[in-house]
Amino acid sequence: MAHTSSRTTIVFIVVALVSAFVPAFSVEEAEAKSLWDTCLLKISPKCALDIIGVVFENLTITDACCHDLVQEGKMCHDTLIKYIAEKPHLVAHETEYLTKSDALWTHCVSISQTA
């Protein structure tokens, strides 16, 4: 029961973070739901936070989260990171974030291929 409660809390945190970072003017409601249904549900909430942390805060990622990221797919990863990077207070460093996102993808693909 405690595990379910903590997982629910983590999902709520991820939803709140993504909602805070995703600019409303870039994503229409139907598109946002489609993005959520097809992309964010493919990875664990912890890995979603780790991915955001790597790109926007210089944190690290586990091999397990790399596998989740590769399973999510490049299109989903690029789209979600680009939406977050376009947030007005982040857009000045968008190129840096997109470069880090590409480096993360390359790293995770190499990790996934060696396993």
TrEMBL record:
Any matching Pfam family? Prolamin_like
Q: Where is the signal peptide?
A: 1-20
Its domain of life? Eukaryota
InterPro entries from the xrefs?
Answer: Prolamin-like
Which keywords does this Swiss-Prot/TrEMBL entry list?
Answer: Signal
Q: Where is the Prolamin-like domain?
A: 38-109
Protein name, as recorded: Prolamin-like domain-containing protein
Q: Which organism does this record belong to?
A: Brassica carinata (Ethiopian mustard)
